[in-house]
Amino acid sequence: MSEQKYVKILLFRYSVVVKGIERNLCDLGYSVEIITENFNSIPDISSSTNLFIVYLPGDIMDDRLKMKELESVCNTIKSLEQKMLLIGEAKYHFELSQAVPAIDEYGWLDRPVESETLALAVEGAIKGNVMHGAKKRILIVDDDPSYAGMVREWIKDHYKVDIVTAGLQAISFLMKNKVDLVLLDYEMPGVDGPKVLKMLRQEASTKDLCIVFLTGVGTKEEVARVMEMKPDGYVLKSTTRDNLLAYISKKLG
Fold it and tell me: Alpha helix (H) ranges present in 109-240?
């Protein structure tokens, strides 16, 4: 390592595991400091830090105060245009990113972390390779959070992914955010897929948006009914991960 790199590990509570991470990074030549709960210092130390690593306790979702702290930490680091890597439980990644959207803009490592994986992730994060900003953005609109979460897991390594679970939420989201493609559930309670499509086509800012229906029925009649609305395409919910990725890649060029 030709130039000294400085890493700050942010802890919500002390962890023996993090001492091991600290040793691994020191062995790789990084200068490492562990900061526990004193997150107000982040702006002061930002200029002398190459990477913040946020180590999340397994039960953070159950602690409202710590969740507020996490949101504040992520938003502060984002506002400082700093680099960050999060380490946490794989099963909570989706829920955490829904509660704190800024999480989705940074790299994530599932626990437990292998030394080699950690080394590559830290190096990539410092170089800016794990930021999702350059990725194309997809909005999934589906009233079934389990299905939406599964699709997100399939495509999140290739695209920045957002999820909403209702038609009106989709409209509100798209009035404030730009995306490259919308995967829109055809059948939803209340404002369903066709109504959302119609509303988006009537707005100047979203009329040319690429909108693909998600449908659970693949009969000839059903497909014809779906395509009558003139979406940019449709995907059967029974499709595989590989087929979905290939389809999206083709749509986004």
Answer: 115-127, 145-155, 167-176, 193-202, 220-227
| Torsion angle in degrees (nearest 10) through CA of 201, 203, 206, 210 | 0
Q: Hey, where are the domains in the chain?
A: 6-127, 137-252
Cα–Cα distance measured from residue 97 to residue 105, given in angstroms and rounded to the nearest whole number = 9
User: In sequence order, what are the residues at sequence separation of 6 or more whose Cβ sits closer than 8 angstroms to the Cβ of residue 248?
Assistant: 138, 155, 158, 159, 181
pLDDT tens digits along 36-56: 978 999 999 999 999 999 999
Amino acid at 66: K
**Superfamily for the 137-252 domain:** Response regulator (3.40.50.2300)
What SS3 string covers 223-243? HHHHHCCCCCEEEECCCCHHH
CATH architecture for the domain at 6-127: 3-Layer(aba) Sandwich (3.40)
Structural element, H or E, at residue 6 = strand 6-11
- Structure confidence by residue, pLDDT tens digits, 122-135: 988 888 754 444 56
Three-state DSSP class for residue 58 = coil
The span from the CA of 201 to the CA of 214, in Å, is: 18
